[in-house]
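Postdoc handover notes: sequence design on the structure in folder B. Input tokens:
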């Protein structure tokens, strides 16, 4: 088995390209990444349930364009709206954790 040289982890790559944790640039990057990740999770859950954006919107009392924006990295979302989309639109349960 050949050993690959110069491999870096994702965290190391981000440290090099964006900056280390605690810097302003890295904090902005991490915040944006969390919003992106939320959109991907919602899109994956919707697809697993076999639902369209329009169906999720109708079930959760919002509109298709809002669901589309959410899946594509909508930065600001009300917590109550997020809960409604997950519970009523996707039939799921929202879990939140705080990591220090």
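Designed sequence:
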């Amino acid at each position: 088995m050949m050993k690959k040289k110069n491999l870096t982890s994702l965290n190391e790559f981000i440290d090099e390209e964006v900056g280390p944790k605690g810097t302003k640039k890295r904090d902005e990057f991490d915040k944006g990444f969390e919003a992106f990740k939320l959109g991907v999770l919602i899109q994956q859950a919707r697809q697993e349930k076999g639902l369209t954006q329009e169906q999720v919107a109708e079930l959760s009392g919002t509109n298709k364009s809002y669901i589309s924006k959410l899946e594509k990295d909508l930065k600001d979302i009300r917590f109550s709206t997020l809960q409604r989309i997950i519970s009523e639109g996707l039939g799921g349960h929202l879990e939140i954790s705080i990591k220090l």
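Context for whoever picks this up: Residues 21 and 66 are 32 Å apart (CA to CA). Don't rerun without checking with the PI first.
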